[in-house]
Design goal:
This protein is an all-alpha fold. The chain has two domains: 77 residues, no CATH class; 82 residues, Annexin V, domain 1. α4 packs antiparallel against α5. The longest helix has 21 residues. It starts with a helix and ends in a 17-residue tail after the last helix.
Length: 180
């Protein structure tokens, strides 16, 4: 089924296929090691898409959306993309920034839109914000894969903090996570 779906995506780069194969293998290993079974396909796909690069994730999401918009909406709900930092409350963003490597943050912001940059900068000290802005201004071209890797490391920090219940990512809280 996976091979068929990849075959019907249209033009797909060999690197993307290798990335997907690697991620599927790692997800399968996790399921086997945990002794569980995969019953929630959307959750598995979200996990896979969270581990591939932004460009590949968007291409795969587009293909899923064309085929089944309802499933695509469920996968999007379960995914966390770097841009979703916009929907995290300021206190949680500040907590995240304390854990994130500043070099990773600089690389990750290289392709971020202005709204996201503003969200990040508004949750930093003015001095730290100015330093990163200056680094971004004078940073030469960088490889997209390096930017995506930095974003992935930041997403991993966010997942870890969420798992430890130190932050709540908007829209993904449990029923008992009602804030008043």
């Amino acid at each position: 089924d996976v091979v068929f779906r990849i075959a019907t995506l249209g033009r797909v780069s060999p690197n993307l296929i290798a990335d997907i194969e690697h991620v599927v293998d790692s997800v399968a290993d996790e399921v086997i090691n945990e002794g569980g079974t995969v019953t929630e396909g959307a959750r598995v796909v979200a996990g896979i898409l969270n581990k591939v690069g932004v460009v590949q994730a968007k291409a795969l999401m587009s293909a899923i959306e064309e085929r089944d918009p309802q499933t695509a909406a469920e996968v999007k709900r379960l995914m966390f993309m770097f841009e979703d930092i916009l929907y995290i409350d300021d206190r949680s963003v500040q907590r995240i920034l304390r854990e994130v490597d500043k070099k990773d943050l600089t690389y990750a912001l290289k392709i971020a839109d202005e709204k996201l940059k503003q969200k990040i900068f508004s949750n930093m000290s003015e001095r730290a914000s100015e330093m990163i802005k200056e680094e971004l201004q004078f940073m030469g071209p960088v490889r997209l894969r390096d930017v995506e890797a930095a974003q992935a490391r930041i997403i991993e920090v966010i997942r870890q903090l969420e798992e430890n219940q130190e932050i709540v990512v908007g829209g993904r809280g449990r029923a008992e996570d009602v804030f008043v």
